[in-house]
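Supplementary Text 2. Reproducibility record for the structural model of the 188-residue chain.

All settings were left at their defaults, and a single model was retained for analysis rather than an ensemble. We include the record here because the model underlies the residue-level annotations in Supplementary Table 4.
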Amino acid sequence: MNYPNNIKKVKTANKVITYGNRGMGLESLINESCEYYNEVDRALIYKKPTPIGISEASYNSKGRVIKNGYFKAPSTLDYNGIYKNKYIEFEAKETSNKTSFPLSNFHEHQIKYIPRVLAHGGICFIIMKINNIIYLIKGSDFISFINNNERKSIPYDWIVKNGFVIKEGYNPALNYLDVVDEVYFEGE
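Retained model, structure tokens:
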């Protein structure tokens, strides 16, 4: 059955599965973590809004109502900011696939953007959730994999070998900056 906003619901033996917010679990953890890091002044990292243009709107008693809109331009990566005097930018992705991470989850403009951040000395990585484990994949390793493989997905074994596990917690919800310290600032 189709529901508003293309949200699908599937009913299985006494269980309803909603597919409308797939991918939001990881982003929610990251958003909470960014808010925590910002509040305790450990870093300034924010989710970037998607640039949207409005082509048709009307007004009602509650204010302006958007009737029609469009994406102005492709966005770059999900999050950016500054940490330890370094520009930081990263993308968040998750999959339900158990054996590999489909590269189709990434847009071409995102793949082209990562080397640009790296070329300017920024820290760039992917936070990836697969098999209910969250990994940090260095942007340089991600691009190297793409450049040296014809595959349409990243094998799970490669992710385990090259990724760094990020632990979930309370404050922050996802302690990704400790992993950034380990990967990019070890020895400081």
